[in-house]
Amino acid sequence: MSKLIEIQSHGALHLVHHGFAATWSENDQIAMITEKGVQILTSTTITMSAFNRKHNMCALVLFATLILSTCVNVAYGSDITGKVFGSATDGMPAAFGNFNSDKFTDLFVLRNNQKTVAILLGSDTEPLLQYSAQLSCSFKDNQKITSVVPGDFDGDAQMDVLVTVVEGDTEVNDVYVLWGETNKLNCNTNVTPLIKMRGQPLAMDYNQDMIVDLFGVHTNGTRMFWVFQKGRDIQPHLHKLVDSSVPLKTPHSHAFLDLNGDSYGDLYLTTVDNTFEIWLYNEHKQNFHLHQNITLPNTLRDKVKYVGQTVFQDLTLEGCLDHLVPVCLSEDCADSALLVWHQEDQHSAPHWTTLRISYKDWNLAFPDKSRMYLDTLTLRPGDFNMDGYPDLLATVKNNGAYKTVLLENVECKSNCGEFPRTFEANFDALNPLSTNTTLGVFYDFLQDGILDVILVHNNGGGKSAVSAFRNSLDYDANFVKVMVSMGQTNNRSSLINNPLGIKQFTYGTNLPGPTIFYSTTTQEGQYRAAVSTQLPQSAHYSLMLPYTIFGLGRMPNFVDQLQVHVYGHVRPFFQLIPNSQVVVIPTPRDKPNLWKVQLFVTPSKLIVRSVFALLGTCLLITAIIAVLYWKERREDHREKLQEAHRFHF
């Protein structure tokens, strides 16, 4: 009997693209190349004739192919950089949005050393993210872009691009709005800045008119709202927030989301003394009031050297948002922790839980203002394995080298207190693309509900490049994908023809702050719920996706209920099919039962496999019938010949 033994294995670089090939040598060694790399195997088969050897080696090659395709199906085909970006790999991710309202999420990137902003349009043809010269604007040589905020700032239902730039080493940002049209940007980069502010802005909707507004710090130090009006020639109105005695932090981790369950967006602000301020929206007074100050736990307050960006996720699938804050407890962040502000149920008070994560020989990358993406300590959430529990992407450092690691949300078995979950560092999940990377961010390349990853590589000499990692799950997982869009309409500006030749009209752009909630029953009969918020943060390359994806694991059951909370109203949906993609347009704002809803269903792999299995079964039965029919015809023909050759007396 033949036995395969691996002699050598060489991983492929992320810039190398190849298919599958296999061959064998005279000394009975098999060489195979896959997307994972090169494997060299040997056979223990005893010496045999050339004829038998040829057939034996063919069988071994087929066997090795089957084994590799089965065992490495997660890694095989994972690097799709060429398919996604083509040759445009020099754009650094800055934000996401649907610029041309074609149902594909577009990527906003920075080029030319952060002096040019460009839009890569999503497509269903290769490359999946396409560059257009009409969607690119450059600033002066002495200016550097610090943030990009896509949104509708003039109420024309088309996406504009807000850009903040700085000149030199200063905290004062000049704010420009590049007014958008269907297929181009108006590059008014040489005019006077529309706004000047300290630090970067938070995108929100202050007066609930479905036009994006800003919150930030005025150059005089005052906390301020900049409220945009319908039209491009009207200056934003200024509304002051009651000042606290503590200045706001820069870089900050401000957020706009519902924090008390009334379906209105509230404010989450971070201050220089590492306090988190909760400002709740008052429906009757139509303003915000300070509700609570959250301080760091007493046991760690004096040890904390740096506080990172807050992440808002339902880590336990209990239907409540948790506030996750990464902190460095030493100057180089070799000692770090994840702090979780968690509430077990509605009757208990929220409190801090400290999670200690092992990064092996690595540690969380301590903030470095000289490096893009590393000016803050940021964890980027997303459900990588589609089990329903949100995972995290983190940048770690070791002896000057950077790497992106996946922090998997797993069950906690010890040292977590009453918190049932923790995170486990998986250094192999993104191999080999994760090496020498300073950013990893989730993105759904194929619009199939499975989150893939965009990675930024440092190539030396101050140059960087992006790569695309396809998340090829080794099992069939279900999901629900929800996007809440602004309800503005613009019938004068039609889009490209759809496949039926009918003009499509835009329904506005992505909306910051809505809350999405779902509940269902598992196959074991257990209640399961989760909540998420759309675009709660916009500054410091938070790179929030303009939609929410809930992983359902292998649960084939209907989603019992899905709720969309926005502007103080709730729209429920019942008995949703798994693998549904839901687009909700909340207009008219005060009549949720009239909100426009579009539902798309993505067939799961199980359905496709079932179809192929059914076709294969039919073909097999047809082949059996054909063989039996042929044998019957042959027997009939033989009997007729025998009958014809008989002698009749």
UniProtKB/TrEMBL annotation:
GO cellular component entries: plasma membrane
Cellular compartment(s):
Membrane
Query: What positions does the domain T-cell immunomodulatory protein TIP C2 occupy?
Result: 506-600
Q: Which domain of life is it from?
A: Eukaryota
- Main subcellular location: membrane
Q: How does it sit in the membrane?
A: Single-pass type I membrane protein
Q: Which InterPro entries match?
A: C2_TIP, FG-GAP, Integrin_alpha_N, Tip
User: What are the alphabetically sorted keywords of the record?
Assistant: Glycoprotein, Membrane, Signal, Transmembrane, Transmembrane helix
Transmembrane domains' residue ranges: 57-76, 606-630
UniProt lists the family membership as follows:
Belongs to the TIP family.
- PANTHER family named in the record: T-CELL IMMUNOMODULATORY PROTEIN, T-CELL IMMUNOMODULATORY PROTEIN HOMOLOG
This chain belongs to which protein, by name? T-cell immunomodulatory protein TIP C2 domain-containing protein
Instruction: Name the species this protein comes from.
Output: Laodelphax striatellus
